[in-house]
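Sequence dictates fold. Next comes a concrete instance:
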Amino acid sequence: MSSQDLNTTPKAGDARQPSTKPALPRPPAQTPNALKRLWPFVSKYKMVMALAGLFLVLAAGATLAFPWALKMLIDQGLAKQEGNLHLAEHFLALFGVASALALFSAARFYTVSWLGERITADVRNTVYTHVLKQSAEFFETTQSGEILSRLTNDTTLVQTVVGSSLSMGLRNLVMGSGALFMLIWTNPLLMLQVMGLLILVVWPSMRMGRRVRKLSRASQDRVADASAIASEVLNAIPVVQSYTAEVRESARFSDSTQYAFVTAVNRTKARAVLVGFIIMATSAALLWGLYEGTLAVQAGTLSAGELGQTIVYVILLASSAAVLGEVYGDLLRAAGATERLMELLETRSAINSNPSSVEPAWPVNGSIVQIKNLCFKYPSRPNQWALKDLTGTALSGQTIAIVGPSGAGKSTLFSLLLRFHDPLSGSIEMDGARIDEMSLHALRNRIGLVPQEPVVFSGTAMENIKYGRVDASTEEVIQAAKAAFADEFIQALPDGYDTFLGERGVRLSGGQRQRIAIARAILKNPPLLLLDEATSALDAHSERVVQEALNRAMKNRTTFVIAHRLATVQQADCIWVFDQGRLCEQGTHSELIESGGLYAGLAKLQFNLNRTQES
C-alpha cells in the first residue's frame, strides 16, 4: 500500500471518505529516528536519565547473573552431591540475585515512569502554548478536534513509549546482548552461526516496519478526524437538536469511526505479521543453537550445568527478541505521534511581535487611532476586498460608530486593530506608533473587546470577570459587574460570584453572558474599547441600562462601536458608513441623514421596522 493509499483508504461498504485539505503539512515517511526530535525535552533531565540507565543496567545484570548462579547450583550443588549446607548457600545466592533484580527493577520502573510523565507534560504544555500564539489564519484552517487529538492521543503514545516501551526495549536490548555475549563466550563457533541467521531477520523486519509506521500514522489521522467531528457537533448541540439531526450526526460519526477502525485493523494486521515473523525467525535460529548445545552435552564437551545455563540464556535471548519486536511496533506508532506533534511546533504564525518593538506612553483620555489607506483580503477569499483604501482618524475619547450592510468590513476592521491579521497595504497607528511595530502584548493590552457572541469560560462568575484583569480585587470585580448591570443576576445565583457557570456559560441566558463579557472589558479598563453589537442579546430594559453603563465606561477612552440600532448610533461623535469594504460616508447622525446617502436609507429602514414592531 502506498503512502497515498493510506490517506484514501475506503470505509466499510466501499464508501469513500470525503477528502478534506489538511491545514497542517504531511511530512514524508520516516523511521523511529523521528523520536530524536524529542531530545530537547529529554535532555533537560539528564540526571534522571542517568539514574534510570544505571538501574536498567543493574537489573539486566541481575537477570544475566541468574543463569550463572543456576549453573553453579547444578554443577556444584547437585552434580557433586555436596551437603545440605552448601546446597542452601546456592539457593540463597539465587534468592540474592532475585532480590537484586526486584530492587533494581522497581527503581528502574519508578525513574523511567517519572521521566515519561514529565516529558509528556512538557511536550503537551509546549505544544499548547505554541498553538495559543498562532494567528487567526491558523485557526480558520485547522479543526479544534485535530489539535485536541494531538494534545491527548499523540502525547499519550509518546508517554507510553518514553515511560514504558523504550525502557523495556533498552532493558531487553542489554539483556539480549549480554545473553548473546555469554552464549558466544561459551560456544563461539555455534553462536556466530546463530548471529548470521539473526542478521538475515533484520532486513525483512525493517521493510515490514516501515509499512507499520505508515499505517500507524494513517490510523492516528483517522482518529483525529473522528475527534474533530465530535468536537464540532458537541459545540453546536442546540443547533443539531433543533434540526433533529442527531441520527444524521451519529451516522456521520459512526462512518468516521468505522473508517478509523478499518485503518487500525490494517495497522494491527501488519504489526501482527511483523511480531510473528520476528518471534518465529529468532526462535528458529536459537533452537538451532540449543540443538547443537544438546549434542555437545551428549558428546561430553559440555557439562549439565553449562547446558542449563545455555538454556536460560537462550530463553532470555529469545524473549528479548520477542519483546524488542513488540517495542519496535510501539516505537513506530510513537514516531508517527511525534511527527504530528512536531508539525504543530513547527507551524509559524503569520502575526508576530516586532523584535525591536516600541511601546508608546499610556494615554490618559483614550487612544488616538489613525488608519491610512488600509487594504485587506482574507486568504480564503483572495479575489474579494474585505477593506479597500480605508482612511480615518479616531481622536482621544471619541466614540466612532461603524454601520453598514453585512459583509461590508466592519468586523474585519476590528480584526486588523487587534492584529489578528495584517493588512496587505496601508497602516494603523495607535498613540503615535504603528501597531505592527508594537509587541502583541502591548497592543492588545490597550484594547478591550466585547464580541457579538460573548465567551464565558468553564468557571465561576468571579473568574470569568477577572479574566479581564487577573490581579483585580473582589471589590473591583463587583464594581465592574454593577457597571455592566450584571451584579443583580449574579447575586441571585446559588453561590453568587462563586457560582459555576458551566461549559461556555450554559447556565446563563444570552443577555447574561453578554453582560459578563461587558463587565470583563470594563474591569480591564483599556484606553481603546471595541464593541461588536455589545447589546444585541439584551431585552429593551436591560439594553437601556447597559447602554447607560457603557456610556459611563466609554468616558475617557476611545470607542469603536459596531451597531445597527439607531439608539446606539445616534450618540456617537462620528459615524463611519461601510459598504463593500470602503468607507463611503462619515459624519454625525444628523449630517448623514441630511445627505440622503446609504446611512439615511439604513436609518429609514430601521425606523419603519421599529414602527411596525410597535404597532
About this structure: The longest strand covers residues 369-376. The radius of gyration is 35 Å. The chain is about 60% helix and 10% strand. Confidence is low (pLDDT under 50) at residues 1-30, 611-615.
